[in-house]
Amino acid sequence: MSATVRSEEDLRSIYGTPSRLASGKQLDRLDVHARRFIELSPFLVVSSQGADGLGDVSPKGDAPGFVQVIDDQTLLIPDRPGNNRIDTLSNLMANDGVGLLFLVPGVCETLRVNGRARVVTDQDLLAPTAVRGRLPTAGILVAVEEVYLHCAKALVRSKLWEDDHKIERRSLPSLGQMLADQIAGLDAADTDARVEDSIKNRLY
């Protein structure tokens, strides 16, 4: 039976201490390399935590550079139209801590940014993030506290960017079918049509 590790001391007895490189790469602000990485990134995931302590991770994506670098310690993430669950925004009402993971297609390194966030609706602040003349309903303004590049091992192991490791979409049922299997009374074809319409007409 495996033992449960319950303390930082126990963890360190198993893993040892991080190298000077691993510890020293952490910055308290966005340098030129972090800024460039964000400028090239069309996709990130945002982690947050609600009052109940349960963690949540939400994907965010748009054209490269959609996340605005306000200054070397401030980022603005536009909140595009979605399903109105607003899990991340709701979590920020209770706990302002966030973790961001930026990805750039074809690049196996990732960029990690941790900080404190708040939800903003100021139209002047959001104006640079408008698409086709449409402002996001709100944005996530992040006060950066920790920044560091993460090495390529995870993406190399997963072969994430390699074409011959891509999965055919038909390997899974359609989203409508999966949701119909999960929610009683839902029609798969109708749900697929609604999802397709939302993607076609309500991205912004």
Explain the overall architecture.
There is one protein chain. With 204 residues, the protein is of the alpha+beta class. It has two domains: 24-161, Pnp Oxidase, Chain A (Roll), CATH 2.30.110.10; 167-204, no CATH class. The protein has eight helices and seven strands, in the order αααββββαββαβααα. The protein has helices at 8-15, 20-24, 32-40, 87-94, 123-126, 153-158, 175-182, 188-201; strands spanning 43-49, 55-61, 68-71, 74-79, 97-103, 110-120, 138-150. The protein has a seven-stranded antiparallel beta sheet, with helices on one face. Helix 7 crosses helix 8. The longest helix has 14 residues, at 188-201. It is globular and about 55 Å long.
Quick structural overview:
This protein is of the alpha+beta class and 204 residues long. The chain has helices at residues 8-15, 20-24, 32-40, 87-94, 123-126, 153-158, 175-182, 188-201, and strands at 43-49, 55-61, 68-71, 74-79, 97-103, 110-120, 138-150.
Helix share, percent: 25-40%
Inertia-based shape: globular
CATH class division of the largest domain: Mainly Beta
What is the average per-residue confidence, as pLDDT, rounded to a whole number? 96
Structural class: alpha+beta
Number of domains: 2
The CATH homologous superfamily of the largest domain is termed Electron Transport, Fmn-binding Protein, Chain A
Number of helices: 8
CATH architecture of the largest domain: Roll
SSE pattern = HHHEEEEHEEHEHHH
Cα-to-Cα separation, first versus last residue: 51 Å
